[in-house]
Amino acid sequence: MSNHKKSSITEEVVLPKGFKAAGSAVGLKKGNVKDMALLFSEKPAVMAGTFTTNQVKAASVKLCQKRLSGKGHAVIINSGNANACNGAQGMLDAERMAQATARLLGVDERTVFVSSTGRIGVRLPMNIIEDGIPKAVRELSRDGGNSASEAIMTTDTKPKRCTVRFPVDGKPVTVTGMCKGAGMIEPNMATMLCYLLTDAVVDSDALQSCLTDAVKKSFNRITVDGDRSTNDTVLLMANGEAGNKPLKKSHPDWDAFCEAVNTITMNLALKIVEDGEGASKVVTIRVKGARNEAEADIAARSVANSLLVKTSWVGDYPNWGRIMDALGYSEAKVDEGRVEIRYDDMPAAKDGVAAGTSLEDLKRVQRQKAFTIDIDLHLGAGEAVVYTCNCTEEYVRINM
Amino acid sequence: MSNHKKSSITEEVVLPKGFKAAGSAVGLKKGNVKDMALLFSEKPAVMAGTFTTNQVKAASVKLCQKRLSGKGHAVIINSGNANACNGAQGMLDAERMAQATARLLGVDERTVFVSSTGRIGVRLPMNIIEDGIPKAVRELSRDGGNSASEAIMTTDTKPKRCTVRFPVDGKPVTVTGMCKGAGMIEPNMATMLCYLLTDAVVDSDALQSCLTDAVKKSFNRITVDGDRSTNDTVLLMANGEAGNKPLKKSHPDWDAFCEAVNTITMNLALKIVEDGEGASKVVTIRVKGARNEAEADIAARSVANSLLVKTSWVGDYPNWGRIMDALGYSEAKVDEGRVEIRYDDMPAAKDGVAAGTSLEDLKRVQRQKAFTIDIDLHLGAGEAVVYTCNCTEEYVRINM
Fold first, then answer.
1. Taking a C-beta distance cutoff of 8 angstroms, is the pair A46, A68 a contact?
2. Touching check for A359 and chain B: CB below 8 Å?
3. Is residue A26 over pLDDT 70?
4. Helix B87-105 and helix B59-67: axis angle, to 10°?
């Protein structure tokens, strides 16, 4: 946001005008833990969304996709059960969750969106859900945003949230965001859920294109374990309470709006990697010189998802050979004799062989909590970046 | 080998006629451990080979590929250093290894093959190699086969070897095999090396097609961590000392020969999975009902390489949802509502939802040291099988 002096960023959920939220403990998880979140806009909001590309999709994802073209008043989210792989019954249960919420809020049920995250292949405990929804509705408040961001947590060790405020047409606009992941819920499934709320007036198509672009640059560039969930959901609600002229490409503040959305999605995406299960180091993989962008992406992901590379980052020994190996077996074209690898600014390999930097200098880079591996394939102009973390014994303990 | 009563299998290296072998401690590794193997045939042998498909290839692999069309007298193998990512110097060093061996054996250097396995990106210590080769040559003996199978070990916890004997044209023929992997060498690189020796007389093209087929059904169907090495090598030497009529497709004993080779490669491949780094369980993933064989293979590998699936097998909780998830994000076509998953013979999922088998029954399967997951996609006739292992905390400790 460096170009926009009038914008400010806060590491909290600050609800935009016209939104209320709640994070309630309804008994889906043991021990009076918050496990249901409700996000609500009095005024129907323009909706945008992106969802998992997994062919196996949770009922809540299918429901959101169906409703995305209409407006939205609310999102009801439960943790503790993913409601995935439950067939027709799962769809009925997701619809009943939306119905119960809509009835209490006094809105059309088609304006209620649903997310679930947790154990897969087990029916939603509808009695607990239906007893819980009235509690969440009662607890809705203007201050409930942070509480909601806690209720969607699973193995997350901390809530992930942030807010950007900036002017549009001279009027104050707020975009806030919260997300969870990439932790396991119960011991069964990793899921990324993210909700963005804004009071800006935004054209519907423009909103979707802004979100698609922001997700592409942030959530689609992180990887913890290479496993893509059945429940991944990003929703953006714009309720228009700020009263600005509708934001779209031709609006002078369009770029500022997109930048705010980008700032939040990138902030949240990096928080996911930092909080990756068992992770102790965040590593940025930057590939350039691939034949094209697609191959740069493939090469970066091959390195980021290599179990041998990820485990090598637990210790401090700079195993650039494993990076060469992962590049070599990727589907991206690699000419071994041209590959250059740097750890932060220290050359590790040049022309595919050791660059002569002392082991101690490379170890010093790898000992850091965060570092960047720059790879130049020297074959073309393709570039890509992926953010990832190491794979520790703790990851295995969490997921066994 | 059930159809061939006259064949016998032994879990040892029994050298075929005309072969000698040695496993020597030459000082590449610390602590007087065997780290150089030499396999030698007095008579030049017909050669067949398959090699890593990684674009980054060790010098020894490049040298073997170049020499494969000619005959072979010997293979010289070192552990402790992979001689990969060493550029032109690496090629020179591999050639020098072959030259030194050839000179002492009194054979043409082009008939000497080389393998290396160990640390990557570090020059071979040629003084140790060149002092070691004479020792290995001196230690060559008819009984040296088992010793050689120990010298190629790295993080392997036991040697992997077996021998099949059967008659061809009424004459006794031996095929023996040894392999190492998929362990790390030093802390840097996983590699699979395998050597098969036979005294059968075999036509050159037939030998290669027999080996290619056997590797496809065995070593290409196992995965420990999804990382493909720079050094993987399978070599088969047939020196013809048995004096049978040349084996090829038209020979009545051709199938018996291929079956012997298949028996050995499958035996060794399964030993690799059983001895996978940190592994405590061997899991067979069998996919059927895919649209075609290629998609069956993709689906099986997606499950076998999913970190979430592999870690779930450490405990006994039957996470079939993670299998659904890994199928769903594979590039194979999956229709969630048709997927069937069984743990051994217990149905876990049917039509994409829980099949109703008790958790305790599924847990009983997953508690075993070895079990099979049968997946039916119900979309076509494609079938594939992959053998893999779980991913434990010990895997991380070995590779960090």
1. no
2. no
3. yes
4. 50
Whether the complex's predicted ipTM surpasses the cut of 0.90: no
Distances from the Cα of A27 to the Cα of A128, B76, B108, B255, angstroms: 7, 66, 78, 64
pLDDT of residue B186: 35
Contact between chains at A329 and B187 (C-beta distance less than 8 A):
no
The tens digit of pLDDT for each residue in A385-396 reads: 999 988 888 877
The contacts found for A343-349 with CB under 8 angstroms, 24 or more apart, are A343/A318, A343/A371, A343/A372, A343/A373, A344/A368, A344/A371, A344/A372, A348/A318, A348/A320, A349/A320, A349/A323, A349/A324, A349/B85, A349/B121
Q: Is A191 a catalytic residue?
A: yes
Domains of chain B by start residue, with CATH: 8-274 (3.60.70.12), 282-399 (3.10.20.340)
The token pair at A332 is 């991206």
Residues 229-288 of B with CB under 8 A from A: 229-230
Question: How far is it, in rounded angstroms, from Cα B353 to Cα A395?
Answer: 27
User: What is the CB neighbour count within 10 angstroms for residue A199?
Assistant: 28
**Is A20 at the interface with chain B, CB within 8 A?**
no
Write out chain A residues lying below 8 Å of B227, CB-based.
306-308, 322, 325-326, 329
Number of neighbouring beta carbons within 10 Å of residue A331: 11
Closest residue, chain A, to B316 (C-alpha): A400
Residue of A101, A191, A230, A388 marked active site = A191
Closest chain B residue to A224 measured between Cα atoms?
B307
User: Cα dihedral angle (A310, A311, A313, A314), rounded to 10 degrees?
Assistant: 140
Task: Work out the average pLDDT over A332-357.
Answer: 96
Kindly state the tokens that stand for B237.
Answer: 């030497």
The string of pLDDT tens digits covering residues A43-91 is 999 999 999 888 999 999 999 999 999 999 999 999 989 999 999 999 9
Q: What angle do CA A231, A130, A105 make, to 5 degrees?
A: 90
**Distance in angstroms (rounded) separating the CA atoms of residues A240 and A244:** 8
* Pairing assessment for the beta strands A353-354 and A346-350 based on DSSP bridges: antiparallel
Q: How far A94 CA sits from the closest chain B CA (Å)?
A: 16
- CA B219/CA B108 separation, integer angstroms: 31
Q: Say which residues have a Cβ less than 8 Å from residue B359's Cβ, sequence separation at least 6.
A: B318
DSSP H helical ranges for A106-174: 126-138, 145-151
Rounded Cα distance between A262 and A258, Å, is 6
- Do the beta carbons of residue B348 and residue B341 sit within 8 Å? yes
